Amino acid sequence: MSATAPPSAAVGTRGTDPAKRAAIRRAIGAGSIGNFVEQFDYGLYGYMAPVMAPAFFPESDQTVAVLSTYAIIAIACLFRPLGGTLVGRWGDRVGRRKTLLWTIVFMGVATTLIGLLPTYQQIGIAAPLLLLLLRVVQGMVSGGEYVGAVAFIVEWAEPERRAYYTSYASNSCFVGILAGAGTAALTSWAIQGPALESWGWRIPFLLALPLSAVGIWLRRHIEESPEFVRATADGTHVVKAPVREALRSQWRPILVFCGISIMVAILSYSWVTFYPEYLTGTLGLPRWMGLVSNAISIAVLIPMLPLAGKLSDRIGRKPMLIAGAIACIVLVPLAFRVGEAGTFGAAVASQLIYIVPEFFLTGIVTVCAAELFATRTRFSASAIAYNSSFSIFMGITPFVAALLVNTFDTIYAVWAYLAAAAVMALVVVSAFMTETYRSRLGADKFAR
Fold it and tell me: Cβ(407)–Cβ(399) under 8 Å?
């Protein structure tokens, strides 16, 4: 099975006609918008958790309230494997486009409803339970959104540019987080004191509705991926039970992806959700400084990711992953040491150091989420792998990081947590991973 699109829908590169270049731009935009909405919500929730906590939990212990708000993220993420399995099965049977159209609808509605929830003081224990229910819905839908979008983009792309194209899917996540950080910072600056805790925190969540409407429009006006159309054109290659088939035939790449992506989840979400709170709650920076310093580092990373994609398309996936794992072990403690100075400049500098391993890892893990798996079960297999590792650790990392610092009274406990995952990733990449760049999408990279 060829990974190159047919002439009528081939991905645009240098020398191709404008219609083909427009097709890939639409595919990137349609695939990425859902990631933006998802991460806008996740980043916003993570940044606003300390402000939201009194609205949903008793105010007797602020630390417990904040940990409980983070715990809701962790619990919701535990449902992502189930949701990803269901969404992935649908995506392998009815197509990527239809599936992604519905995921963005559910995500937008759930995020908007969070901004409308009554408080603990109004309805008691029902308030955090409703919050948890909405986060669970988001978690289940998001379990299929990201991997589906990546599969969609990769299946449009030419083999020699897949990492470059999917870097925009990674970027959409960071742009979403940046938008969440910027919105949280602006809200915290414009609405302060009791007003912010009472009703001000709700306003950013309501923005998800118009954002989702844009995503729906984009996805309604894009064709199905050429690779999926080609693989299922005669109807004989549609797998009736893609989840079972994925577990039977793709278990090795699933385990490989899990071994790599746990490291990236801990790296990314200890940075974008936990570290700003550490800067403000432990080191004493004003909240806006913690958020703005984080936003600056994300803004610096965004234009770097396409460059990382181009580099990986030239040298391969494995060298990038190995360099990133080593950087996690060596540079993250240096970043924490710089940040301990407790100034705004130190906060920015520490996070600029922190994004070095992100440069080597984030976009590369993204493209591997599609390249490691065969077309007929790509959505299901990547959903199982992604949600069994990245999603769970994405959800629990802010909670675990806060708990580690509270228990050991040092942020270097968070580094030890990350370093253990990085060592595991080094072993997996070096000993068990098959290089996937420029490979045929339909081929089994792990065949003996």
Answer: no
CA distance 248 to 136: 28
354 in a structural domain: yes
Q: What is the pLDDT of residue 442?
A: 60
Rounded-to-integer distance, Cα 260 and Cα 56, Å: 35
- pLDDT for res 385: 92
Distance of alpha carbon 109 from alpha carbon 111, whole angstroms? 6
pLDDT at 399 over 70: yes
Distance of CA 332 to the CA centre of its chain: 20
The answer to the question of residue 2 being in a domain is no
Out of 6-10, 206-210, 286-290, which region has the weakest mean confidence (pLDDT)? 6-10
Are 231 and 237 spatial neighbours (Cβ–Cβ below 8 Å)?
yes
Distance CA 133, CA 114 (A): 10
DSSP letters along 333-363, please? HHHHHHHTT-SHHHHHHHHHHHHHHHHHHHH
Taking the C-alpha atoms of 180, 352, 349 and 278 in order, what is their torsion angle to the nearest 10 degrees?
50
Torsion angle, alpha carbons of 333, 335, 338, 341, to 10:
-90
| Higher pLDDT among residues 30 and 420, named by residue | 420
Q: Which two tokens stand for residue 40?
A: 């806008």
For helices 18-56 and 162-190, angle between their N-to-C axes, nearest 10 degrees = 40
Q: Work out how many domains the chain is built from and give that number.
A: 1
In a domain, 115, yes or no: yes
* Sequence-ordered list of residues with C-beta below 8 angstroms from that of 421, at least 6 positions apart, any chain: 262, 263, 266, 328, 393
Could you give the angle at the alpha carbon of 209 between the alpha carbons of 208 and 214, nearest 5°? 95
Closest residue by Cα to residue 74 from 55, 98, 49? 49
Helix (H, G, I), strand (E, B) or coil at 283: coil
Contacts of 80 (CB under 8 A, 6+ apart): 139, 140, 142, 143, 387, 391, 392, 395
Record the pTM.
Answer: 0.81
The distance in angstroms from the start CA to the end CA of the chain is 19
CATH number assigned to the domain comprising residue 321: 1.20.1250.20
Q: What is the pLDDT of residues 213-263, one digit of tens each?
A: 988 898 888 888 888 888 777 655 677 788 888 889 889 999 999 999 999
H helices of 57-190, in order, are 62-77, 80-94, 96-114, 120-123, 126-156, 162-190
Residue 169 is assigned to a structural domain of this protein = yes
Its domain, for residue 381, covers 18-226+236-431
**Residue 372 pLDDT grade (very low, low, confident, very high; cuts 50, 70, 90):** very high
